[in-house]
Amino acid sequence: MSKHFDIVIVGGGLVGASLALSLADLPCRIALIDSQLPKNLSELGPKTLNDYSKRVSAITAASSSLLSDLGVWNLVDDSWKQAYRFMKVWDQLGSGELRFDADEMHVDELGCIVENNVMLAAMHAKVSESQNLECFWQQTVEKFEGVAEQADGVSLMLSNGESLSADLLVAADGAMSGVRQQAGFEMREWDYDHLAIVATVETERSHNNTAFQRFSEDGPLAFLPLKNTDKPGRFSSIVWSLKTDRAKHVLGLSNSEFCDELKKEIENNLGDVLNVSERASFPLRQRHAKRYFKESVVLVGDAAHTIHPLAGQGVNLGFKDVAVLSEELHRAIAEGVSLSHPQVLKRYQRRRQSDNLLMMGAMEGFKRLFGQADPMLRLLRNTGMSWVNRQGTLKRKIIEHAMGL
Ligand SMILES: Cc1cc2nc3c(=O)[nH]c(=O)nc-3n(C[C@H](O)[C@H](O)[C@H](O)COP(=O)(O)OP(=O)(O)OC[C@H]3O[C@@H](n4cnc5c(N)ncnc54)[C@H](O)[C@@H]3O)c2cc1C
Questions:
Q1: According to DSSP H, which parts of 252-295 are helical?
Q2: What atom of ligand 1 comes closest to residue 198's alpha carbon?
Q3: Integer CA distances (angstroms), 10 to 36, 184, 303, in order
Q4: Which end of the chain is more exposed for a tag (fewer CB within 10 A), N or C?
């Protein structure tokens, strides 16, 4: 016997879980499937350097507003959120830099750094309260059918042998989406031959609520400020993107050698790097689905697009997908249209694809521009940065876009 749902969401990560919450008020039966167990807020304790999860996100104002509407943001205690009021972006060995200040924007903060696990735990707590959502934790989709022409819905089998069917299947299962691969979506993708090294570090000087981003020919390095009550201002999360060969070398350094190298790379902005947690690394690839839907299957978040993490936009784009897909599905229900009707999914695709493409193009442009050793180009980009830094209106436009406003 197969259990029928109106919507099945595969992937209970940041994007899938928030989509489930934003659809929970529909008169629909919705299933959420994830291969992991749900995260639990009460298991997240006081913070020493090694307690922080390696994956943190810079959350824009647009995303925190969505999370507030879903009742998730207020579950994330203030002691877990580090607002940043300043941002400093510069080119290594150059003189140009860009500085952003929340006061110039007439806002309290430019964004907030939060650990992914903390946001997930808050979302999973909300998901478990909802009557309309049925969760299948620690389950994967073994196989599914129904993406052929004229297919009416999909049927799928879980790893525990259970059969489900759905009018609409949402793939929110991340960058390596199995649903996307099984359904045969075509992708545009390329490898950066870069690894992103992530870790938590303790620094001699306070981050002073500042996010730092330094570009160099080897790749960008970000220091994102973390909240810590014992040592306020001293902890940051780093994302250091390097060519694979150099990244492997850096990953093999001892802790003290790694700290010395980082201090040099961040040009001593935070004094000595005193301590580093265990390090992790992720291969960087840019991917974008040529289409976001195929019959009754639709892609959201990293399943549809993965972007270089240099400006911390990945999950923020995913949250924008959530807002638009949710709006289109609410509209379909209100108008009595089938959830997988091509017009419904086409509208979602049209509204999101161009915005995602724009951000991906901008990130690619930044990466290439700052990856050039040519002295003439270096002079141009440094002069350009200093010029932009003096243009109040243009600077405001840039930061408004980065804040998702
Ligand atoms: C180093 C690094 C730093 C980043 N920093 C930022 C940042 O500062 N700001 C930002 O906006 N973005 C950032 N990103 C990007 C961001 O992490 C991703 O865009 C975001 O996590 C995507 O969310 P998602 O829910 O789409 O996918 P995921 O987070 O990958 O979640 C997918 C979910 O699907 C589940 N799943 C996978 N396969 C299956 C299966 N077969 N069956 C069932 N469940 C399955 C997984 O368990 C997981 O819960 C960064 C990325 C990297 C690599």
A1: 255-265
A2: 1
A3: 12, 16, 10
A4: N
